[in-house]
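Saturday, quiet lab. Running sequence design on the structure tokens for the scaffold JK sent over.
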């Protein structure tokens, strides 16, 4: 592999303009040979600085030698490098050799990750979880470059604008509540945060949304880190039967729910971010998932959580969720806890972005931040306010919702027939 890297370095230093034709994912970490890595870095830096046209091969060789601290003469070293290329000979193009080096680097990195995982398996009390986390780590390491030219971006934006002018409906996911659908667009690759105080209705609304979306034939994956599968299923059944428990109604509800494309995961291992990501990836490959729900953010743990401040750990979680949403082009709805500060003091106030618990980067990573708020929980416990506090693709504002917590049902006054009937 060292010989191939040196051939690549010689070809690159002789024709540095070929750097622009390389796989964008190829980086200096792909090189084991120190001098080949230095050549790659020198050409990359010169290309970024728009200096490549002013530098000849000897000047680039000198910059590469300076990077490794070598005192060799640039011209002599360059002749030796080119001589090796001619001796070994390789008919492949620079791009082909670069692709081979990138593949070999991915193979080494994958093998190292799996080797570490194998060593951990013999010490782990949960070996399956350890393997899942290793697989997730490998999958997250390989990032595909998705940059496009401005011309491509303009063309896509113009096409979308034309569709809107022609009255075509926005391709965002509809969650079955007109009040919410009018304000928030659940588009591919987006991360949405729904926050409320305990008992504020966020899980109930999320489960209602899951039922609505699944009823339209779109697959939904729910990661429940707080409630068990049975508890979530009970919520769904109560919504279907309007809280009635007659055996016939309950059986009909089970039959109806059995046909919906909803998957619920609630394993203890999901409290670790890599395990959650691994399972989500596996489900996305096995089924067509159109919406992922995580209940809730503050229960997700990161690998280095013991050595990381809590707000930094939550930021790592939201960045990982955002990256997954973009990669698989499916929106993610993540529930979040809120600080107790909103309940303190003698005067009631409306929630703000700073009320997100361990907020960190939550509001920065999210495409929208939504709150459910009960302005008078003691006297009007079923009176809710839906607040869009951040909304990249729509308006900010507030609308009224009603709750029937006994029936696990959020009711939209603009569309009161939102109950999922069997």
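Result came back. Writing it out in full:
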């Amino acid at each position: 592999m060292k010989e191939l890297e040196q051939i690549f370095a010689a070809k690159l230093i002789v024709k540095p303009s070929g750097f622009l034709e390389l796989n964008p994912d190829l980086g200096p970490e792909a090189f084991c040979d120190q001098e080949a890595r230095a050549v790659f870095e020198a050409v990359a830096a010169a290309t970024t600085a728009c200096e490549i046209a002013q530098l000849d091969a000897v000047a680039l060789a000198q910059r590469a030698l300076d990077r490794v601290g070598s005192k060799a003469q640039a011209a002599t070293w360059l002749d030796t490098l080119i001589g090796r290329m001619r001796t070994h000979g390789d008919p492949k193009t620079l791009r082909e050799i670069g692709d081979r080096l990138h593949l070999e680097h991915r193979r080494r990195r994958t093998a190292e990750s799996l080797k570490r995982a194998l060593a951990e398996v013999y010490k782990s009390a949960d070996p399956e979880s350890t393997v899942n986390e290793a697989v997730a780590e490998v999958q997250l390491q390989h990032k595909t470059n998705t940059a496009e030219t401005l011309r491509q971006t303009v063309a896509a934006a113009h096409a979308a604008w034309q569709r809107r002018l022609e009255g075509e409906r926005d391709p965002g996911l509809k969650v079955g509540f007109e009040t919410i659908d009018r304000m928030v667009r659940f588009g591919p690759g987006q991360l949405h945060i729904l926050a409320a105080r305990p008992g504020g209705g966020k899980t109930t609304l999320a489960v209602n949304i899951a039922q609505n979306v699944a009823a339209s034939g779109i697959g939904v994956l729910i990661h429940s880190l707080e409630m068990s599968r049975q508890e979530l299923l009970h919520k769904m059944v109560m919504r279907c039967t309007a809280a009635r428990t007659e055996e016939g109604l309950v059986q009909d509800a089970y039959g109806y729910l059995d046909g919906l494309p909803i998957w619920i995961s609630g394993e203890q291992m999901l409290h670790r971010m890599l395990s959650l990501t691994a399972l989500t990836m596996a489900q996305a490959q096995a089924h067509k998932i159109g919406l992922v729900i995580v209940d809730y953010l503050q229960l997700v743990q990161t690998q280095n959580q013991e050595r990381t401040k809590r707000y930094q750990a939550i930021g790592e979680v939201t960045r990982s969720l955002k990256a997954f949403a973009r990669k698989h082009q499916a929106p993610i709805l993540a529930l979040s806890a809120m600080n107790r500060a909103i309940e303190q003091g003698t005067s009631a106030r409306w929630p703000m972005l700073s009320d997100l618990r361990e907020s960190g980067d939550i509001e920065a990573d999210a495409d929208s931040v939504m709150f459910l708020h009960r302005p008078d929980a003691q006297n009007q416990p079923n009176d809710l306010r839906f607040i869009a506090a951040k909304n990249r693709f729509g308006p900010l504002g507030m609308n009224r919702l009603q709750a029937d917590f006994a029936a696990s049902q959020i009711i939209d006054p603009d569309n009161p027939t939102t109950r999922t009937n069997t």
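Notes for JK: Residues 143-148, 417-422 have pLDDT under 50 and may be disordered. Strands lie at 191-195, 219-224, 262-265, 289-295, 332-336, 368-373, 383-391, 397-404, 409-411. Ask whether to fix the surface positions before the next round.
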